[in-house]
Amino acid sequence: MSVAGSTRILRDGVRLNPWLAAWLAALVATLLVYQLREAWPWAVKYPRAWNVPLSFWISGFMKWLINDFDLGLFTFKELTRSLSWLLDWPLAAAKGLLSSGFTFSSDPRAPIVVERVSWVALIGVVGVMGYSAGGLRLALLVGGCFAYLAVFGQWDSAMVTLSSIVIAVPLGVALGLFVGIAGFRWLRFEQAITPILDLMQTVPVFAYLVPILFLFGFGPVAAMIATIIYATPPMVRVTMLALRQVPDEVVEFGRMAGCTTRQLLWKVQIPSAQAGLMVGVNQVIMLSLNMVIIASMIGAGGLGFDVLSSLRRLSIGQGLEAGIAITLLAIALDRLSQAFANRPPPDHRRQELTWVARHPYLLTALGILVVTWIIGLVWPAVHIYPETLEITTGAFWEDLVEWINVNFFDELEAVKTWLLLHVLIPVKRFLLQLPWVAVIALLALAGLQLGGWRLALLVACLAGFIAVTGQWAKSMVTVYLCGLSVVFAALIGVPVGIWAARNERAHRVVQVIIDTLQTLPSFVYLIPVVMLFRVGDFSAMIAIVAYAVAPAVRYTDHGIRQVPPHLIEAARAMGCTRRQILWRVQIPLALPEIMLGINQTIMMALAMLVITALVGTRDLGQEVYIALTKADTGRGIVAGVSVAFIAIIADRLIAAWAMRRKQELGLA
Amino acid sequence: MATREQSASGAGASSGKAAAKTAKLTCSGVWKVFGQGAKEFLARHDTAPNAAELTGAGLIGAVRDAGLEVGEGEIFVIMGLSGSGKSTLVRCLSRLIEPTAGAIFFEDQDLLKTSEKEMIELRRHKMGMVFQHFALLPHLTVLGNVAFPLEVQGVDRETRKRRALEVIELVGLQGREAYYPRELSGGQQQRVGIARSLAVEPEIWFLDEPFSALDPLIRREMQDEFLRLQNVLRKTIVFITHDFDEAIRLADRIAIMQDGAIIQIGTPEALVLDPATDYVAEFTKEIPRAKVLSAQAVMSPLGDGEAPSGGVPWNTKVAELAERLVDSEEALAVLDAGGRPIGRLERRAVLDVLVGRTGGP
Ligand SMILES: Nc1ncnc2c1ncn2[C@@H]1O[C@H](COP(=O)(O)OP(=O)(O)O)[C@@H](O)[C@H]1O
Ligand SMILES: [Mg+2]
Question: Smaller CB count within 10 Å for chain B: N or C?
Fold first, then answer.
């Protein structure tokens, strides 16, 4: 990077930054290529004849894997079959317990039926859990969330969802823990899995639904496997991090005590890393819940299925109720797991008590189960929430939408049309007409300037992959939708973040809103948007902006608060006004942090983009979605990987920029 | 850099404290160099690169050519400023860190040739270590922490509880067995650390700045406690500190480290009387001589056939002699370990030391 900062004197005496010169030259070249589109059509539009049929090869490989691959003792198909058979056991047990009850039919005419846990009992149990971890407030919050499920008629579906969550979460945690431990132990292993984790967290979920569908068939087990794959990567990272953060001295003590490697791990390192590991558990829970709706596409059933099917029927009220149910379930489990993670550790008095006195909550919970079960025998309402008492707000929501649409149709439509005509469509046209060769060259130039030739090479290769596999036009639509959404999200998020950073009251309000936004599963955003704007790019964009705005706010707020106070005092001493302090000191210094927030916004926008395929966009997301409905593995994977590559290109470029800027500012 | 090693200067070989005992732990030519290709670099430089060569190669010479010998039952203190390589050296001695070069012997056993499995056995039964920041396991009670080394060995529950309660009592924490570390003060936590390291009755006891994280008052109290324990236990001890006062109070012998090298080893008295470098002299400047110097160092030679009345052992500290000399008009005899007179003690010489007029360069 020796040329980066240097300037050179041109012959006519104008001082020109060489990078500026390079960029100007590249832009001129781009224009030139565009002007020559008649002569060199291949440079503007990637020729179909040059496509590498990668998706075709992948599909062929998958077919071979399923039909012909023989591992010697058994075939690959038998392997996947037995894996799903194995996973079906705990899932069936959880379902029986929470949802369907157990039926033992030695004699089909008089089956022995064990009923599921009743709604009263479960609300009581989660209430007790909430009380033990976080006191009365948490008990009421968690109990209230579950009560909503019963009262609004969501109980049956919610229990199907919950039973797959209670199995997927421990499995995901255990898997993440073991992979994380391996990564912690062996540097080689960590180096091998890091890019895989990166990819898994950027490839849209839809993309790996396809191969899972292919390997494990349609049904709750396949859905659970998809959930685990989606929710595990953060646990792997958190595990490695938490184990590394155990103080050296504690590990040295373990070794001096004569621990074997295994004893050291299980008796010293993991217990010491407990607090950190709990963060990972919370992440797994949240991601599993985020996956609920998507997993219902391959047979998870439950609340996700309700949302999905009402979305397809455009039956807004029902969809919204189920969506709220998922959100409340997510809030309850999130707060509960966080409270358990942050619970103050036991103190010495506990040791002196009897077993019964040490486990009051466990015993209360068991008591509730037994008592409600006995009461339920004589009074069935305790067991099954009576339908007559169910409330539905479906009609209300539909009326509301109706009312808005009747009264504000013109206004909404005007906004939508104006934006479409003056912003969305022009940007889309522009991007689609950019010569692909030039785009790759410009990306590489950016990579070279920000991170050196390795970054340039990476970026060019990733973009090249997209072109070569014939995804260029769809990718450009993706970039257009995502890019515009990010711009809007930044236009909203950054000012809100600045406001929150400079005003304590605003900070608290904004914080609550952001926390809630981030607990909402992505699908839920689609419901109101579709209600008001129906399907199309515009609806998709609104949903993406709403989903992705949170990190822009959070990082801006944090970045500005992080500016060292002595710099602000110095500026004030020099007589800067509040506005000058903001523009001259706080924003420039917080800019790297803000950009990292924008980076997160891009990642979230891309994740959401794929989901908006449901409301009829025409981009890579749609491509993945189509592949899913057609069970076309290759097509899904290639399109999914292309989305991931767009994410990685953006991520690496922005991260490199932020890194350099931080170093220049002496903040890194 | 040559290491200067001496027992009490001027004393006969027989009166040197450490030399009389058998060596428990010895090391020589120990190097620990951090960085890529450290081993090859050392080999290329014939295991003797200087500081400049090391930094030039981008390496960190945390321990450079260290050699020492710890006698059985001795308190051997390693003293040096922060970053001088004390922790690294002591971790090499217990092989928590693999030295880049050198030899380390525990009694007759070559530690660098010992397999990891045998090392585990050795650490389980013969070594104990106390850490600067206590390194207690947060999820275990005091009892659980102290019994932990026994649990790791597979000792049965009853035995390890009995043994743990014994050591907990020894360090004065009885009644706190059920407490968790976070419920204890710093001093109490370090008592747990001490009890835990003693639970397996180690033969050699490493303490890495055990009192540095404590308040000065508590530190003093813990030092007394430590000396009391050592009076009972008579362990072989390697004690690390960056505090010269602490070193003087506790040590039989002190090794001074600077930039990874040991620059002088000797009794506190020897260091005060004859510092090897200005660096050592700088440390000893502020130390009250009366607390360090012994009768032997200030005595004058006996005249022919002279036999002064009343004797004091050769190693009595001058500070302790003051009272006796105030009462007596005559000079006192200084006796060697066998009770034979080896010199006479003038009042004036003692007074000079007490008021700081002499005694040392
Ligand atoms: N793992 C390591 N990697 C690189 N350098 C280290 C490592 N451990 C210690 N050092 C360096 O070795 C030197 C001695 O450290 P240390 O033994 O901890 O000193 P002390 O205990 O005397 O304060 C220091 O300069 C330290 O930075
Ligand atoms: Mg140290």
Answer: C
